[in-house]
Amino acid sequence: MTNTPLALGNGNHAGYSNTQNGIAATLTIQNYAPMLPKRLWNPVADFTRSAVTDFAPLNGREASKVMGHLARLAIWTIDVACQPLQRDIVFNGRHIEAFISNGSIGLTEYGNRCRRSLLLRVASELANFDPLRRDSGKKPHTDSFAPYTAAEIVRFRSQGSTRSTALRRHNWTVLLSLAAGCALTTSEIVGLKVENVSISRDSVRVAIRGDRARTVVCLEAWEADIRELLSSPLVSDYLFVKAERPKIPPMYVTNFLRTVAHGGEQFTVERLRSTWMLGHLEAGTAPVAVMQMVGVKSFSTFERLIPYVTAPSPAAHTAMFRRAAHS
After folding, report:
1. CB count, 10 Å around CB of 285?
2. What is the pLDDT of residues 113-135, one digit of tens each?
3. Tens of pLDDT, residues 229-247
4. How many helices (H) does the chain have, and how many strands (E)?
5. 282 and 195 in a common domain
6. Same-domain pairing of 197 and 230
7. Are residues 89 and 178 in the same domain?
8. Directed axis angle between helix 60-79 and helix 38-55, to 10°?
9. CA 186, CA 209: separation in Å to the nearest integer?
């Protein structure tokens, strides 16, 4: 039998009562797919199988049950919360609570309690969470979603021009420009084709295909960078230059940024997107319009930005509400 964590029992879970149960769990994880549309399941399949493998379910039945609940959490993470599939994010206790409150639909109250309990149990074993805490998890990093300051953005621009090779400088700037300037996700940036970027005299627009199809108007401050990137001799089909598209873009990009930063400061696409959203909200752009540009369907995406929104002065606050248009 293969010496996988499942077959041996990895200390995270109770292990297996016998070899037959271990084999059944292994085969289930390898072959089972929850009853979900392929367009939703495929992007989270590898993450789900990997996490459930490390959780080491007792048998095939438990494996399929955990996969079903975890897959839905993972889908909500990337489609609604717009976060990458990283364990420290997905298995954060507060993230799970937010999913149960806002994204766990179709279950009774009892069903949601069971789902919450199971996900927190998985989290506690994979991430060493303390089950005695109310959120059953570590506090989220304070800077996980915080928008960047103008000074930080300037530093990232400067870093891009000093990377060791032309290819690294190019891809660093692609990630920075399309996240901060157009609020694209990591997967959208890596998969963006040149033909989907429209340049005109007065704007730069990016057409996103797929489930979150939309056309994004990029910030004027980043138009020159994007135009320059498009004219690079490195570029052929895709703006992010790589011989083959990464199988798991968020993981690849995280490793790329860590390597290229070479121990220095590095940005995250998530925080750059937050910076873009905050800028529009503070500029008075209608939240519904921001949602459409970002490609989300829930206002919960903006909840993490509330602490960073600058409150208007009392006079501006009064004037704002007095000018509201009549329906």
Report:
1. 13
2. 899 999 998 988 886 544 444 34
3. 999 999 999 999 998 988 8
4. 15, 3
5. yes
6. yes
7. no
8. 130
9. 14
